[in-house]
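Service request form, structural biology core

Requester: graduate student, group of Dr. S.
Request type: structure prediction, single chain
Budget code: on file
Notes: please return the result as structure tokens.

Sequence provided:
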Amino acid sequence: MAFTLYSLLQAALLFVNAVAVLHEERFLRHVGWGSDQGIGGFGEEPGIKAQLTNLIRSIRTVMRVPLIAVNSITIVLLLLFG
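Core staff response, request fulfilled:
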């Protein structure tokens, strides 16, 4: 398999899909990355764990509908062109 732009986009899509399916109660809380973890005080910069948790939550919220469309297009392209 050659390293092409399509394979790079497909790998990014798989990564975003993997982040989107992480469930907070089932997985993230067991490894210490739940939403109630890492709450800082007022004026403190959030740590890397809080920033990654917010990124995961944002990806799940914002990318839900576009992921359905992009996954459908990817499936159709793979069925048509192999």
